[in-house]
Amino acid sequence: MARATSRNARIGWTVAAWFVALLIFFPILYTIITSLKTEQEAIAGFDLIPSFTLESFQTVQSQNNYWRPFTNSVILAVGSTLLALIVAIPAAWAMAFSPTKRTKDILMWMLSTKMMPAVAVLVPIYLIFLRTGLMDTRIGLTVLLMLINLPIVVWMLYTYFREIPGEILEAARMDGASLRDEILYVLTPMAIPGIASTLLLNIILAWNEAFWTIQLTTTNAAPLSAFIASFSSPQGLFWAKLSAASVMAIAPILVLGWFSQKQLVRGLTFGAVK
Amino acid sequence: MATRQTQGLARLMRAPAIILLLIWMIVPLCMTLYYSFLNYNLLNPGMTSWTGWFNYQYFYTDPAFVEAIWNTLVLVLGVLFITVVGGIAIALLIDKPIWGQGIVRILVISPFFVMPPVAALIWKNMIMHPSYGVLADVAQFFGASPVDWFAQYPLFSITLIVAWQWLPFATLILLTSLQSLDTEQMEAAEMDGAPAYARFLYLVLPHMARAITVVILIQTIFLLGIYAEILVTTNGGPGFASTNLTFLIYRAARLNFDIGGAAAGGIIAVILANLIAIFLMRAVGKNLD
After folding, report:
1. Given this model, what pLDDT does residue A2 score?
2. d(CA B11, CA B226)
3. Across the strands, what pairs with B38?
4. Residue ranges in chain A modelled with pLDDT below 70
5. B20 three-state secondary structure
6. Could B111 and A25 be called an inter-chain contact, meaning their C-beta atoms sit closer than 8 Å?
7. What is the pTM of this model?
8. What are the structural domain ranges in chain B?
9. How many contacts, defined by CB atoms under 8 Å, are there between A and B?
10. Cis previous bond, A69, omega within 30
11. Which domains are seen in chain A, by residue range?
12. pLDDT by residue (tens digit) across B28-69?
């Protein structure tokens, strides 16, 4: 009897949880379905079964020159993340392994730079980009995105590095390892998972950035976020095509995101929740 | 000797990140401050002159400014309320022994990875469009007339979209916190006959307090800067009905070419963000180690 009720309860909770999950996922699901419809089907009313045509994907790729923004997105997201890692790894390393009295203050200060609203520096950044010819260039935007995410990268790496036990270093030193051996054979292998998580999360954040990319690009360097935003007035791009463009813009990051749930919590809470 | 060497090396390793962030923080902010005292319009740069406090007076006596501040507060508080309450409820639900928990988690977390312009366009066209949206189909099914969401309830519609984007974040963090709850304590309370609501109020909620604080803090930082969702749906309208402070400053800088006015607005945004940051940090200070 008790077993039966607990089984019924489990069925009840499962149904409720799946209902809520599908409700939340529905807008994405319906976009995927619509992207597989023809334009006529797309505006014909609610229908969950498309005709599975790839027409819209082909049209978006050929007519709207989709590959340029896609390439820009990849270059900006990966480029800014790698740049941030190059600067942040040594800094986080130093703060984790030879902390000083001020290390905590420096970390808090770095966090506080994230609290500055982007729009507060819109005017100077816009004018600098305009005057130095950085406007609508990949290099300008890559550096900017690197600066925006640098505090998060340093923080995330710091929380990972701090978990590497110091005793291991002492043990290696006792066994006669040089500083070079220490870094190469002891620390690096232990640091790589943390670095990989940071890399993943930062690529996601940079890919989805949509304030600066819209402000500072027109056509040349526009990544997908700016490209899609230009469809806000839907002349020429209809429901099925808009859906296809949307699916292509979010699919890579959605898949990456599914793999990085844990790192997401840690990275975005600056290690406060694990 | 060796330690001094390591300290020197450590300083050298820290320096690039600190210097870069220092420049990034100070230079643009000083420029904004300087521009905010200039009468400077990009359409007429030859007429640039010093105007003292004029831009600030102009900005905060503008009725649009008051409306934008109000909209910013409504948007931030509305999204926080929906995501925290909804996040707690969904986290509790997912934490139950259910079949397919992994997939449910993936489905719930997904909206967070949708870039803001795409999220806004999906809702604008697929869901809320007055003739082709799913909600219009639902309304017609029940014999009601479809709602033109962005014309009639612009700010509410944007709040809904942003809440959809941030609900996964709140859920995921609250779920992580919930899963670190001591099960023995819960079982003991259950054996002692504590009803479910009492267990929630006296065990679960206090345990999640820190995570809730973190969610509120981090979301507030991001929510103050909501921009793309407004740009692609209502463009701030009708009138200024869905313009927040970020969008108002964008409008001054990019559509009116009013550099001085936008800079003054930017300084006001910094002050506002800092007030909230200080207020939040103090209110939650005891929760953050």
Report:
1. 45
2. 37
3. B50
4. 1-5, 64, 232-237, 270-272, 274
5. helix
6. yes
7. 0.88
8. 57-284
9. 275
10. no
11. 1-65+235-249 (no CATH), 70-230 (1.10.3720.10)
12. 999 989 888 888 887 777 777 788 888 888 887 888 888 999
Amino acid at B6: T
- Rounded to an integer, what distance in angstroms lies between the CA atom of residue A205 and that of residue A201? 6
> With contact defined as beta carbons under 8 Å apart, do A145 and A76 qualify?
yes
Contact B99 A10 (CB under 8 A): yes
**Any idea of the CA torsion for A136, B234, B122, B212, to the nearest 10 degrees?**
90
Q: Is A5 on the interface with B (CB under 8 A)?
A: no
Does the beta-carbon distance from B221 to A110 stay under 8 Å? Answer: no
User: Which of A23, A24, A30, A86 to probe by mutation at the B interface, max B CB count within 10 Å?
Assistant: A24
* Closest chain A CA to residue B174: A273
Using an 8 Å Cβ cutoff, are B48 and B279 in contact? no
Min Cα distance A114 → chain B (Å) is 8
Half-sphere exposure of B261 (CA within 13 A, CB side): 22
Write the DSSP string, A202-265: HHHHHHH--SHHHHH-SSSS--HHHHHHTTSS-SS--HHHHHHHHHHHHHHHHHHHHHTHHHHH
Subunit contact B13:A94, Cβ cutoff 8 A: yes
What is the pLDDT at residue B3? 63
ipTM entry: 0.87
Cβ–Cβ under 8 Å, residues B77 and B155: no
pLDDT reported for residue A135:
87
DSSP letters for A20-89: HHHHHHHHHHHHHHHHTS-HHHHTSS--S------HHHHHHHHHTTTHHHHHHHHHHHHHHHHHHHHHHH
What digits encode the pLDDT tens for the residues B99-128?
888 899 999 999 999 999 999 999 988 888
Which of B185, B236, B237, B233 minimizes the C-alpha distance to B207? B185
Question: What's the pLDDT score for residue B116?
Answer: 93
Residue B120: what pLDDT?
92
Mean pLDDT of B267-282: 80
DSSP B130: T
Residue to mutate among B31, B69, B107, with most A CBs inside 10 A, is B107
Q: Does residue A212 contact residue B95 with C-beta atoms inside 8 Å?
A: no
Q: At what angle do helices B2-35 and A138-162 cross, to 10 degrees?
A: 140
pLDDT of residue B187: 83
The domain over range B57-284 is classified in CATH as 3.30.470.20: no
